[in-house]
Amino acid sequence: MADTRVTIAGVEWKNPVTTASGTFGSGTEFSEFVDLNHLGAVTTKGVANVPWEGNPTPRVAEVYGGMMNAVGLQNPGIDVFCERDIPFLRKYDTKIIVNVCGRSEEDYCEVVERLASEDVDMLEINISCPNVKEGGIAFGQNPKAAETITRAVKKYAKQPVIMKLSPNVTDITEMARAVEAGGADAVSLINTLTGMKIDINRKQFVLANKTGGVSGPVVKPIAVRMVYQVANTVKIPIIGMGGIGTWEDAVEFLLAGASAVSVGTANFYNPKATEEIADGIAAYMDRNGYAAVPEMVGIVK
Question: What is the pTM of this model?
Fold first, then answer.
């Protein structure tokens, strides 16, 4: 049997599969469908220093090849998260990655400082949410701002820091280099692509926010290309995501240079997707003679 363990920024996962932030709640919501012990890590929904209401409805729309959302990072705030969600996840044999969101540098740092004393394994800093008007989008599209926010959170972080990159930029490698220079321990990409849908009968925007983040199979070729580019630019590990619905999709990301993968939209239409993908990767490794995951990471040049 192949050894599916991977080490990301010094943290060992039992397999290279986690969940994309915002698509899996904080684990509780999927725990009756998915054996959380089967996952390499669970990445939580974004958490802020105070509760966020999110955007007005409607927030979600189906689009060709996927979906579009403008939920706006609704969350209960860090106090509730620490009291309720971390103890729940700690009952399972999986790593905990907390996604952190904020509207300012101070917001991010406040949450990261609070989490320093909590029993979680890694932090994913969301500087790239396309449907939050303040904060995130500015950090995610400006290399200097991305480097600055990375340096700032690293001062407070006790856990390894993963910086989540936006695809809504001219050059993804420029952003990856910026956060690496700021001290990021890893990067995750891609977040959603900004899109829009109009109802031609009602002659109105389908989403109340007008724009939203497009995800699902339609974005996968773009995501694979960006992961490949970043893998050949920076030295820190990559968690690849964007349209992964099957083990074949996941292997494609690994071959392109991702050290691990994150499953998002697929959770909505196939709650067992993460488990199936983890098993599929292991079977692929056995068939192809790979004894360990790193043997196939980034081998396609």
Answer: 0.96
